[in-house]
Amino acid sequence: MKTSTLIFIPCLFFISCMGGPTSNKEELSTHGYDRQSRMYEDLEDRDESEREGSFSGRTQVTSKKVHHLRDARTGLVVNSTEYPSDWKVISKASYTIDQKLPTFLIQITGPNHLQSFNTPITYHVDYQDPQMAEAMYNTPYGRLVRPLASPQQIFNEGVKTRMSKSGFHYVGEREQPEVTQYLRNKLASKSTLNSSLSMYNTEWKNGSGQKAMASVSIISMQQPAISGSMMVWFYTVNYTFVDEVAYESTLEKMKEATFSYQENPQWESYVAQLGQQRAQENQRRLAMASAQHQNRMQARWAAFNAHQEKMKGIWAAQDANHASFMNRNFGAGSDVGQQQFINMINEEETVYNPLTGTNYQVNAGSTEYWMDSDGNYIQNDDLFYTPNGDINLNNREWTKVKGAY
Q1: 85-112 tens-digit pLDDT
Q2: What residues form DSSP beta bridges with 199?
Q3: Domain assignment of residue 108, given as a range
């Protein structure tokens, strides 16, 4: 099976889309990654016939042609890049990160069995708040949550094994400081967020006279979150295969193509306008959410007040019932009724002493009560008994007292 390929430095082709506003969560989708990656990830299926043949491209090609990356939604050119005229370049817009801002898959084939491609972007979010991360794990976006990884870690997770299974053995790392710095400068000019770019390039050889470069590129951006902050990061893997005799010259041409990158002012205007529209929409949604919150609070207060008014009516009815009960059982008057109720509970009676003009509390249950001027009282059930004639009471004056109520 013949495999089409993409350029090995894809960062340049999606940086231009990163300066715009972040898409809404409901626009985020990763379902397209797996479908697109099937076209590129099986390196073992590369046609063996393309590895054979002698080097026939010894003549230096100097003519160039321009390839445009075009937004499939609007038809606008996003940016343009110059390639050698004998390279076949194919690009495809992808909207897995943002439904209106594309990233691109770039495929290149050319002389000396040149094949180059990038894999679809893999997107992740790293929450600094552990509780926030744990909460997000239980949502449909849980598969996106992952701590920020290094390019070397991504390389060890899959690239290394894939290259080995394809018949290549590891040669070493390959620094490309000029390209890396160019892309970092481009990223800094396009993103207002705290962004960074890291790249890891590895070189490989096989027994058929080919050499390869496998590169991992990671872009990370610090963003505010509901709780603390979060790190949005994504990566792509880039592969380039070519005959060993043309390896260095091919990398040089790749670098020239990277530096020839040109942005389209019309696309930049479109992205800026889209950003304004999204900002206005976000403001509208915030205002709507605030109004809905106010309405909910007002509705709650109205319900609370209605409940309070209802309870006032119930309490008034209960008070009336209580007053009626007290009057029926203990007579009219709130003070009298209350005291009679208390006396019933304490098994007491309230009596009035005419000698002092004061009420006294006495134990209940006797037929009559006699009291002196000091408040001492005698309980009596014998209607013929008179304490004033009792020599045992020291000839004190006693008077019969009656209930105060």
Answers
A1: 999 999 999 888 788 888 899 999 999 9
A2: 217
A3: 11-263
